[in-house]
Amino acid sequence: MNVSQISISRDELRVMLETGYILREAARFDDAEAVFRGVIEFLPQSDVPRVGLGTVFLQRGDFAAAEEICLNALNLNPDSVYARLHYAEALLFGKRRDQAEDELREIIGNHPDSPHSETARALLEAADLIAPH
């Protein structure tokens, strides 16, 4: 049986995603990775489970893998501020500060009222790239 033969509702996929985030926060990285990879099979055109997977690698400290996964999500959905934010975060922690700063400032400039913009500001402040407000 392959994934296309399995019927799963949007609500069930949402619960699976939430489970992945809970597992990640509980530092059960292998389990979280498995959940996000599973959801990717059901939502191959969605950036959300890919970014979730990328955040698992961010928390593991594997910034190169996180960058690659988040860039893949961003390529899949170039308008995703969620993917751009975590891609920039991976760049920042991967010591590619100039690129990260450009991405984060773009998020702030293009989406000043979004929660992603607040997170981008906090990342810039934490990296001493802007003064706290």
Structural features:
mainly alpha; Serine Threonine Protein Phosphatase 5, Tetratricopeptide repeat; 7 helices; globular
Structure, explained:
With 133 residues, the protein is mainly alpha-helical. It has one domain (9-126): Tetratricopeptide repeat domain (Serine Threonine Protein Phosphatase 5, Tetratricopeptide repeat, Alpha Horseshoe). The chain contains 7 helices and no strands. The longest helix has 16 residues, at 10-25. It is globular, with a radius of gyration of 15 Å. The N and C termini lie far apart (54 Å). The model has no long low-confidence stretch (mean pLDDT 92).
In total, the number of domains comes to 1
- What structural class results from the helix and strand content? mainly alpha
**pLDDT < 50 runs, ≥5 residues:** none
Tell me the major beta sheet.
none
What is the H/E string? HHHHHHH
Query: Strand content of the residues, in percent?
Result: under 5%
CATH superfamily: Tetratricopeptide repeat domain
Terminal CA distance: 54 Å
From the 3D coordinates, which CATH architecture would you assign?
Answer: Alpha Horseshoe
Number of helices: 7
The coarse overall form would be globular
**Helicity range:** over 70%
In CATH, the topology is named Serine Threonine Protein Phosphatase 5, Tetratricopeptide repeat
Counting DSSP E segments of at least 2 residues, the number of strands comes to 0
What is the mean pLDDT?
Answer: 92
Radius of gyration, in angstroms, nearest whole number: 15 Å
Q: In the CATH hierarchy, what is the class?
A: Mainly Alpha
Quaternary: single chain
